[in-house]
Amino acid sequence: MEGFATASCAAQHTRMNTSSVNAYRRIAPPLVAGLAVLFSFLWQGHKGFNLGDEGFLWYGTQQVLAGEVPIRDFMAYDPGRYYWSAALMSLFGNDGIMSLRAAVAIFQVIGLSVGLLLIGRTFTGNRASDMTYLLLGAVTLLAWMYPRHKLFDISLSILLIGTLTYWIEKPTSHRYYLAGLAVGVAAFFGRNHGLYGAAGSLGALLFLALNRVERPGWIKGGALWCAGVVTGYAPMLYMWLAIPGFRATFFRGVRSMMERGSTNLTLPIPWPWRVDFAALPIIEAVRGVLIGCFFLGIVIFGVLSLVAIIHHYLRGRAIAPVWIACALLALPYAHYAYSRADVGHLAHGIFPLLIGALFLLYARRPAIKWPLALLLGGASLGVMYALHPGWQARSHPGWTEVEISGDRLQVDPFTAHDIALLRELVETYAPDGQNFLATPYWPGAYALMGQRSPMWAHYALWPRSEERQLEEIERLREVQPRFALVIDFPLDGREDRRFRHTNPLIYQYIREHFEDRSTAYHSVYEIYVAREAK
Fold it and tell me: Which of 456, 412, 459 is nearest to 438 (CA)?
């Protein structure tokens, strides 16, 4: 009896330890994620402002709050991010830039929490070691969460990794459906995420079919997954059916993208061997090599992981679901990184590599785990630190405070100049809420001034057909903006990407119907004033 009692106590103690470890795994990652995002927000939430990409999101959210429909009424991403932001901003009772950033930061907390939960699935209960590794993982992931207006995309990639992990770990009917649901919701935020999630899901379906999962079978499971996709994408399907003009505009955009043959404005891939050490300071040269290595790494990780997983499967070895999920999504998200090969898009596609590497490293012996994890974290900081506005405000002179939508923000001298120029033009030529045109790079100008863009394409970067340009000219004739600011800048250094070449009919219309006042301002900015507004 004494031996039985001792064994029973030992088993109970083991269960209590296991329960304690599991609770720690569930609680610590979201807590660390919340504190990390809060620290980042307090440090740099009031620093920096981007009239371009961030202004694109801010303007769209303001228009949703005003009752307009993304894509149909104005150029936009897929609607999910606008409705998320608008819902929270309406709760905050504010449509300003800091309200938008707070709404995005909440989504960021969700994404980072899932990322750290995935990394922490191998934690052993050694609190000191686990917490140190969790903090290192948080710093590494947080470093790549840039730029802030793209945190939806970054968080969605992490959430898809978490969804596939949850599904593969225990492939019940319920989880097949939830996996499809997550892909559908992701597509409502960004159709590319839906495609990447679908590609990863097909790989998961194949893996589960090969493993001969009996319940549900692959046919029933596939049907459940498809039902989940339809449910998750139901808001978009509703918009197609119920909102006049939305479906036609949506598919016109899809058709235009297919005609272009690309999803983005492409850039040369910055391979590490292309870095010119003779022309760059050593720090920038090393950073260039690291960037190139990360571009290589996302593909190498995806390919080698798939090969290793197949090898493990053929030998009958257990394979961690987190690793499978990261491997299945690594190559789809590599497409995102390579679609416009800059650091910002690299950050959008790198999270399968980061989470997969941090997960796999934790199980290695300390002599391998800690040096490689620190190397990954150090390389991540080496690439990304200079891009975060908190660091830029600290390390670059001339940053100054400006008032934006009732908040005091610190911005760089160029942005401060642009805001001052815009306000001067509005005060001089379009006071009292009159319309103006700022194109092609400043969609945030309208959000800043609380105005509606006179053109559908308030971020007119792409070459557009004659038909689309004539439609915009009709809008301009109807609205009659008081002045037009054309930023005469060759995007990516390419002359064919100047506005005069991408939208020549609109440019010609402006030249013919407005008076040129450009000589009074910086040479990059062409200023045209309506003739009756002199």
Answer: 459
Show which of 337, 357, 389 is a domain's final residue. 389
Residue 156 CB neighbour total at 10 angstroms: 28
The reply to whether 309 and 418 lie within a common domain is no
Flag whether pLDDT at 21 surpasses 80: no
Q: What is the residue-wise DSSP string for 202-268?
A: HHHHHHHHHTT--SS-HHHHHHHHHHHHHHHTHHHHHHHHHSTTHHHHHHHHHHHHHHHT-SS----
Q: Which domain holds residue 518?
A: 412-533
Structural domain count, the chain: 2
Question: What is the rounded distance in angstroms from the CA atom of residue 388 to the CA atom of residue 179?
Answer: 33
- Same structural domain for residues 438 and 366? no
Q: Helix 191-210 and helix 218-232: axis angle, to 10°?
A: 160
3-state secondary structure 164-185: HHHHHHCCCHHHHHHHHHHHHH
| pLDDT tens sequence across 163-215 | 999 999 999 999 999 999 999 999 999 999 999 999 999 999 999 988 876 67
Q: How many angstroms separate the CA atoms of 135 and 113, rounded?
A: 12
Give a yes or no: residue 458 inside a domain: yes
Q: What global pTM score does this model have?
A: 0.94
Phi/psi at 69 (5° precision): -115, 125
Residues paired with 70 in a beta bridge: 74
Residue 492 DSSP one-character state: G
Please indicate, yes or no, if residue 57 is contained in any of the structural domains: no
3-class DSSP state for residue 487?
Answer: strand
* 12 part of a folded domain: yes
380 & 516 share domain: no
Domain end position, chosen among 389, 421, 439: 389
